[in-house]
Amino acid sequence: MNLSELEKLKVNPEWAKLPIFDRKGWRRLAFGEFAQSVNDRVEPSDAADEPYVGLDDLDSGSLHVRRWGKGSDVIGTKLRFRKGDIIFGRRRAYQRKLAVAEFDGICSAHAMVVRAKPEFVLPEFLPFLMMSDRFMTRAVEISVGSLSPTINWKTLKLEEFDLPPIDRQQQIARILWGTNEVRITWQRIEHAVLVARDTYVAEFRRSETNLVHCANLLELASGKSKPKDIRAKPDNEAAVPVYGGNGVIGYTNAPLVNEPTIVVGRVGEYCGCVHLSEGTAWITDNAIFIKTYDNRLSLRFLFWMLKAADLNKKKKIAGQPLISQSTIAEETIPLPSRKGQLIFLERIDQLTSGLKASIRQGEASSAVLAEMSNLLF
Hints:
Layout: H1 3-8, E1 27-30, H2 31-34, E2 35-37, E3 41-42, E4 51-53, E5 69-70, E6 78-81, E7 86-89, E8 98-100, E9 105-107, E10 111-116, H3 126-131, H4 133-141, H5 153-156, E11 160-163, H6 166-207, E12 211-213, E13 218-222, E14 240-244, E15 247-252, E16 261-265, E17 274-277, E18 282-283, E19 287-293, H7 299-308, E20 316-317, E21 321-322, H8 325-329, E22 332-334, H9 338-376
Parallel strand pairs: 4-9, 14-18
Antiparallel strand pairs: 1-11, 2-10, 3-6, 4-5, 6-9, 7-8, 7-10, 12-22, 13-19, 14-15, 16-17, 16-19, 20-21
């Protein structure tokens, strides 16, 4: 691979000088020569107490199974897998659902259970080959069907991939698993900081005794239909965000509100979701916004109190989820002094800063892992 090819991959050119990227001794083999599809079928009634892994239990881009149910939860013939096997979502391969089993169990028949042939490929090396862009691109290309494209083993086993010698596979696998562990560590830190922030907000709400109904603190208004000139990206200095129930959905040149406000999803899937608009914006009729509020309140403080109120749980079902202005107006929130609100927000900013830092580090680790895999494969 030359310098220009490395630059296209956005990979550090110095990496090519590392021993693990030396392709001496690599050979091309058909996938079926070094891996097998395990088609051990089982009825859930015969595995009622065993772990069951569905495609919804697999997270895109993750090599780990984080969730599972039990065989007694499902019906229909399933596939048996063993510890160390790879559970690969052969339906809709573009979702990149692939994980290494850390226990024995059963899985969806819409998955493919892949087992390494250790005389050709190490079980700890194979997952990274399969998660690479090279493999996933071919998996998507050879899938058949329009509504739910699916990979057939008869086709996949003929696809050819380059494999390094076994000793090189060991070196590569150690480095890639190590990088993956760094990514997971940052993801755990991210989760821990997020929980700490949510806990702090909840405890603050519980500890405050001066509670006031929102109806006495703010005036609400409903948004309007989407502007006619809405577009996906801002293309000039006058463009302002358009908020729906799920946050920013586009941009327009005609603001509905000219100052910071809080937007709450009013209807549908994002009913009760709370967003902070920090400047001029357009609010659609899928949302409610704060028109005016008491000068004793910090808008950012109000934002966090409404988020913690979990308005989504107070929705009404009438064909689809719905909350009204009165739902928000009836909510009771703490009203500490301005100084108390400032202390609260300083702590929130500290936790949010830590959260963003852990997200950046996790994304950087993911990028390094992806770049190394793409350069290798």
